[in-house]
Amino acid sequence: MALVSAKEMLNKARDGHYAVGAININNLEWTKAILETAQAENSPIMLGVSEGAVKYMGGFHVVTDMVKAVVKDLGITVPVALHLDHGSFEGCKKAIAAGFTSVMFDGSHSPLEENLAQTREIVALAHANGVSVEAEVGTIGGEEDGVVGTGELADPQECKLLSETGIDFLAAGIGNIHGKYPENWAGLSFDRLEEVKEAANGLPLVLHGGSGIPEDQIKKAINLGVAKINVNTELQLAFAAATRKYIEEGKDLEGKGFDPRKLLNPGFKAMQETVKEKIAMFGSANKA
Question: Can you give the CATH number for the domain in which 135 is found?
Answer without folding.
Answer: 3.20.20.70
